[in-house]
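new request in #modeling-help
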Amino acid sequence: DSGVTQTPKHLITATGQRVTLRCSPRSGDLSVYWYQQSLDQGLQFLIQYYNGEERAKGNILERFSAQQFPDLHSELNLSSLELGDSALYFCASSARVRSSDTQYFGPGTRLTVL
Amino acid sequence: DAKTTQPTSMDCAEGRAANLPCNHSTISGNEYVYWYRQIHSQGPQYIIHGLKNNETNEMASLIITEDRKSSTLILPHATLRDTAVYYCIVIQTSYDKVIFGPGTSLSVIP
């Protein structure tokens, strides 16, 4: 158990809909990272937040957005969903802002878009 | 693009040492070598990391060549539960995004 929690575990929705994925980092960790893993793309870095502020952006679509709240939990919002958004979404946390810090991953949310 | 090259897949007999190679010929002086693994569809799990020196922890050993252009992750006594995809990553010490490559799929065979 990494100490990172993600909810929900599974999510099934339809094209065009909007969903919110939630992540609680390990106690004391200030950075949160979001990754997408689909069958044909591998693990793709989406975005990083540190202590409430966006710090790094990867291959995140404009239809996706994220935020980190004062209590340090984070939410990833996916809108206008397409079939290709079906994937595993992982959240990770680390103690500080540097991506070279060890990242601890949550169990993931499996999103299925029908 | 990932800065590392790993074999696509490897087999290892249960109880034997698993040696997973990684090439990172363009690594720079301030970049760490990190290893993570992912068992089935679980979240990736941190294994070990190093900068210049060899490192060992309760899970594995990391051997980095003197020129730092390659490294080897060693699982000393592989078990069936070590069957996973192993990712070798180089990461700058400063703020940077992490890029995962396709990794090596290790199968531990009874």
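bot summary: Chain B has a mean pLDDT of 91.
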